[in-house]
Amino acid sequence: MKENTLPKKTTLLWQIRIIIITFILVAACLYFEPLFSFLKIFAIVIGIIGIILAFLYLPFFFKSYKIILSNDAVIVKFGIIVKIEHIMPYKRMIYAQSFETPLARIFGIAAVRLKAARSYLLVAEIEKEAAQTIIDFLAEGELNE
Amino acid sequence: MNKTFRAHPLMIFNFLKPFLFVLLIPLIRGLIQYAASGEYDSILYFEIMLLIGLFAIGFLRWWCFKLILNEEKHTITVVSGLFFRRTAKINVDRLSSVQTKQNPLEYILRAVTFRLNTEAGSLDKSDYEFKLSVKSAKEVSTLLYGRGEQKKIRFSLLKIAVLAATTSSAFTGIIVGVPLIYRAGNLLEIAISDMLLNELNNLSQKVETYFPPVVNTICIALLLSYAVSFFYSLFKYLNFQLMLGKEKIEMRSGLFVRTRTAFKKAAINSVRIEQSFLMLLLRRFAMRVSVGGYGDSRSKSEVVIPLEKGQEIRKHFAEYLPFFKCDTGVFIKPRPTAINRSRFLFFPGIYFIAASVTAIIIGKRFEDFTRFVLFCLIVVCALIFVHAWFCLFECFKGKVDFGENVFIRSRKGFRNCELYCPKENVGEIKLIRFPADMWHHTCRLRITIRSERADSLCVRHLDYETVKKTVNEYFNINA
């Protein structure tokens, strides 16, 4: 049984994403603030939530992320407040798909979606080589047997 | 060895489609400008700039799209996306089917719409849909399913016409025809629907029968709808060909829109032999196979044989599909007692009495409509008699066989049906007992196939003890 954690780059990528989104929202609120004064409070609240998410929640969330490749199934465990364990047997898996955004490509990481009939399992961004290994393993390894 | 295929340039337009709404922006801008100042400028310039930009994105997305086939590892890789890059690797064994479709425009440009279907596909959508050149599509199909020898079976126009007639209904005709008439009317700015209704009224008044003119109008409207549905089905199935390869089954059909569907023999969940009332009169059957994650739905049953004698179907497929036969020959049948047989006609009897009583009450209450009520009663009674006919089929011909393959014969609605599947594909066996069943020591046996489509068939009034014992033995249940 092989247990994998997420690379630190994933946390950094998501922190950048959250910061960008927070920045856009705060900037939009401040831009329209002369028209609607309550938007100033909105900007402060959004800013605080963004900072908490980026620097407190995300590092712990991704630290809790574990990907286990057992003999029979892929198991993904994550969660801080609500703990989730997603088990997907290899036999039920149909195919795997990786996708990368421009920012993820710069970091050399990619997310993987494992597709089964009527459901899928999403693995957050991992090293590109690791993602490719998982995809190859599922397409050529177990499924061929 | 990897073999890479590029999409047909026609796919650039497919990539453009989701972004075409952007072309409205300069128009809206111009409208606002016009409303504010009474003038507008540069609309055409912006439109052209946007169109060039969209084409550039479409072209780059087309350029990035790749289909890679690995013959040794038996995998297919689809790479797509310009900024958001997606790579999917699918084992060929996991493909439930491959479908190619060609409309007249694609025919002229030598392109086809190629669909890869797996059981993981979302509802009403293929996993991957793209355009390939005819040459590439043929090459991909050959690489996926191998060359091998194929047994080609063609069907006459008459057989196709009977299939179209049995799969058509006035209801489908209305669904297909009404939007067409509405759109054509809007496009030509002619009230086609009003003209059609006037024609219907004129025609129904000219035909003199015992029944009132409204009956004629309804009959003509229904017949017209049925004709629309018939021709729709006929064009869909026209030129139907069946190719039986060593490992794959392929079907080709269509006149204007040509469809080609291929799937592995191993992907078949179950086989259904069906006989509608019209087929019953012609003493012919149709054969369908159910394949998971196929076509525009989660799972689909596809016509393999449109119309053939039962013996002919068995001749073609008995060896080809190993589970297409009864194993043991020891059948469980409905009890042959007179009381049990009469129970099969219980519901048709009830329907007949209910229809007659309702017709009498309505006829007495609304005396002006007596002839119309009589017409309705005749139609309902005809349907009840057909239903009774199928119930009698279930009584005398219904049976179940539990062997290495499971076989069940019964009726489903207004169709006689036979279902064959391997033992491991049986999803659920249900024994249902109503108070009357408990009184007569009988039960209904429903078998559901383990597939997305969940095909099921039920035989009524079987001996409960026999069924229970057989099922327990079959699945090694200690009850």
Describe the structure.
With 145 residues, chain A is α+β, with helices and mostly antiparallel strands. Helix content of chain A is 48%, strand content 31%. Chain A is built from four helices and seven strands; from the N terminus they run E-H-H-E-E-E-E-H-E-E-H. In chain A, the strands form two sheets. In chain A, strands 1-2-3-4 form a four-stranded antiparallel β-sheet. A three-stranded antiparallel β-sheet of chain A has the order 5-6-7. Chain A starts with a strand and ends with a helix. Helix content of chain B is 45%, strand content 28%. Chain B has helices spanning 11-16, 24-37, 43-64, 104-108, 134-145, 157-167, 170-188, 192-206, 213-237, 277-282, 310-317, 338-344, 346-365, 370-397, 435-440, 464-474, and strands at 2-6, 66-70, 75-80, 85-91, 95-102, 111-118, 128-133, 151-154, 241-244, 248-253, 258-264, 268-276, 285-292, 299-308, 399-402, 405-412, 415-422, 426-432, 442-449, 456-463. In chain B, strands 7-6-5-11-10-9-8 form a seven-stranded antiparallel β-sheet. In chain B, strand 10 and strand 11 (258-264) form a beta hairpin. The model of chain B is unreliable at 293-298 (pLDDT under 50). Classes of the chains: A alpha+beta (145), B alpha+beta (479). At the A-B interface, strand 5 and helix 4 of A face strand 4 of B.
